[in-house]
Backbone:
């Protein structure tokens, strides 16, 4: 394709006056469409910002996460401590910044876990069908039958509290969602012409699944990943809030909230700022999921593109008059 | 009973069996002797032996499961490692608090979602619609326990209108019961309400675009009559089922909110059981939650075929 593109380009160059627009890739056009929505742009900025905070952590945080200074306890937000200090005199801003890494890490690992397990189960169930489908999906039904938070609590009852176990518990909770989404997508593409054609020329099952079925089943999985990240951040905060997730003195937003709950009358800032951090990150992942759904779903996408080109035409007309 | 209903019910029973195996396995997956873990470091051999025998842990696994499930079916979920009370009694004590909270929450959610969702759909892309979208988007992203803390801060702390925590049984003091219920119910209701608002909006929008609505308008019916008779009746149909599913999800959210408001419900019971390593109580609570969750989903599916004759087959 690129050779043809260059040939066309040089031909156009020779012709001089004719302007040939290079064919735009599916990816770039999707990205452009994604970035054209202010809400998605906001979500991306927040997510990138939080990731940067998590990567830089100690370089940007004013103090360490556990620098106790009893003389400075429960100070209201001010010039020295923008978000105030907690009951042990620790800087709340620093702990919120350093908590970003914990939230993101738990979210990423937990969702990674459900992604790998769920997509594998969904691919196998959807592609091979029959008894494998029945066994795998009934297993997922059983996992799905528990209210999410309760399943996570039960898993932690077995494994014991802690950040790693919280990741496993949350990951297990969201595995069935990925399995269902993947299975449905696989069922949609496995009988399509290109898959049958590939099978007829002797492609192996592994090749078919990874080269043809998975990429075409990917859009709903990508959307689900973003939405699940939002859920995972919430779940980690909830588990840490009730004392089953990240253990003190590590800076977890949920943990900070539960510490702040004891000081509602004298130090509102202890509970307000970590909560705002959770809302912002979860909101960003949710909005990103919505934006991705709009761009990746062909039906939504054509509606979106039509609306954009209508408004562009309207602008152009407005400019001329 | 139609074929669909029969199949669907059977499927739920199979899943419930799977759930019971998973819940049973909970105790046996624990690293170490659950009785010893529950008793802590100081105990005498006699207490230990008695508890072990009472909980049937000296029997082979298959026998234990058979015994456990057959007594569970008759409502006997064993005894607490800690207090020695029957688990069923402990659960029944906590049930009214959780049911009050779940019922009030779904009421709050519907009171928010129905008007807001309908108005948003009637005026799409208006300022109000935009506001509704933003509010529901944020509502979905707010952790329930933080919402609870913020409401306590404002309405119990600064304004002093409602108690910050605690539960008053309905039988003791109906007015106190209602007052104690407001903040926790609004907390969970706001989050569920956000989900339902989005759903109501899309459901009403879809109904507005239907052919029969156009016909109704064409024959000269007024906007109010079209809305009441042709749009809402159809739009609310799927809403019944989604509300049922939301009620099931509420059960999950309630766990943490009960902690925030020191609400003596099932969620608190389950959490205390985890902290005390009281496995029979945890098993009982988890089993009950999963059972209700499955039951609600089943009822919703069956109801849907009843309400929408196009689906039953």
Residues:
């Amino acid at each position: 394709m690129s050779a043809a593109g260059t040939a066309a380009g040089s031909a156009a160059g020779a012709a001089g006056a004719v302007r040939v627009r290079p064919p735009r890739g599916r990816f770039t056009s999707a990205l452009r469409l994604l970035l054209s929505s202010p809400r998605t742009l906001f979500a991306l900025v927040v997510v990138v910002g939080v990731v940067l905070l998590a990567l830089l952590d100690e370089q940007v945080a004013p103090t360490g996460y556990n620098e106790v200074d009893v003389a400075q306890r429960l100070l209201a937000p001010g010039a020295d401590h923008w978000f105030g200090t907690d009951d042990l005199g620790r800087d709340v801003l620093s702990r919120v910044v350093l908590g970003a890494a914990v939230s993101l890490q738990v979210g990423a690992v937990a969702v990674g876990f459900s992604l790998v397990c769920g997509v594998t189960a969904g691919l196998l169930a959807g592609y091979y069908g029959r008894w494998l489908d029945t066994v795998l999906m009934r297993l997922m039904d059983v996992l799905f039958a528990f209210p999410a938070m309760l399943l996570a609590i039960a898993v932690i009852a077995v494994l014991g509290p802690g950040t790693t176990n919280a990741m496993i518990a949350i990951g297990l909770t969201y595995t069935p969602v990925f399995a269902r989404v993947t299975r449905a997508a696989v069922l949609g593409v496995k009988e399509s012409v290109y898959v049958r054609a590939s099978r007829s020329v002797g492609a192996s099952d592994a090749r078919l699944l990874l080269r043809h079925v998975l990429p075409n089943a990917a859009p709903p999985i990508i959307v689900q990943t973003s939405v699940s990240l939002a859920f995972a951040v919430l779940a980690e905060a909830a588990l840490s809030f009730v004392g089953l997730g990240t253990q003190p003195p590590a800076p977890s937003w949920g943990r900070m909230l539960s510490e702040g709950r004891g000081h509602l009358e004298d130090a509102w800032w202890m509970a307000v700022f970590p909560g705002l951090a959770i809302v912002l990150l979860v909101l960003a992942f949710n909005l990103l999921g919505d934006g991705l759904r709009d761009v990746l779903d062909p039906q939504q996408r054509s509606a979106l593109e039509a609306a954009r080109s209508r408004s562009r035409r309207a602008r152009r007309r407005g400019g001329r008059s | 009973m139609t074929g669909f209903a029969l199949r669907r019910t059977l499927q739920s029973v199979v899943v419930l069996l799977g759930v019971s195996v998973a819940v049973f396995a909970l105790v046996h997956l624990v690293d170490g002797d659950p009785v010893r873990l529950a008793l802590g470091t100081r105990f005498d051999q006699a207490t230990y032996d008695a508890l072990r025998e009472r909980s049937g842990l000296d029997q082979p696994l298959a026998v234990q499961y058979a015994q456990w499930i057959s007594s569970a079916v008759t409502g006997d979920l064993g005894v607490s490692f800690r207090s020695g009370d029957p688990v069923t009694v402990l659960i029944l004590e906590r049930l009214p608090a959780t049911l009050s909270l779940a019922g009030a929450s779904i009421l709050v959610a519907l009171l928010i979602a129905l008007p807001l969702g309908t108005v948003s759909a009637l005026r799409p892309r208006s300022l109000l619609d935009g506001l509704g979208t933003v509010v529901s988007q944020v509502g979905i992203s707010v952790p329930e326990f933080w919402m609870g803390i913020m409401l306590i801060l404002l309405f119990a702390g600064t304004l002093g209108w409602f108690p910050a925590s605690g539960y008053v049984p309905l039988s003791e003091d109906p007015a106190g019961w209602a007052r104690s219920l407001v903040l926790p119910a609004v907390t969970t209701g706001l989050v569920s309400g956000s989900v339902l608002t989005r759903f109501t909006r899309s459901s009403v929008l879809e109904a507005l675009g239907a052919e029969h609505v156009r016909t109704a308008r064409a024959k000269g019916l007024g906007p109010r009559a079209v809305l009441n008779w042709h749009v809402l009746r159809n739009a609310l149909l799927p809403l019944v089922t989604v509300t049922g599913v939301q009620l099931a999800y509420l059960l999950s959210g309630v766990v943490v909110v009960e902690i925030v408001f020191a609400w003596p419900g099932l969620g608190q019971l389950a959490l205390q059981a985890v902290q005390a390593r009281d496995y029979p109580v945890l098993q009982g609570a988890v089993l009950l939650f999963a059972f209700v969750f499955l039951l609600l989903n089943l009822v919703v599916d069956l109801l849907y075929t009843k309400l929408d004759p196009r689906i039953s087959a």
Notes: The two ends of chain A are 41 Å apart (CA to CA). Chain A has a mean pLDDT of 81.
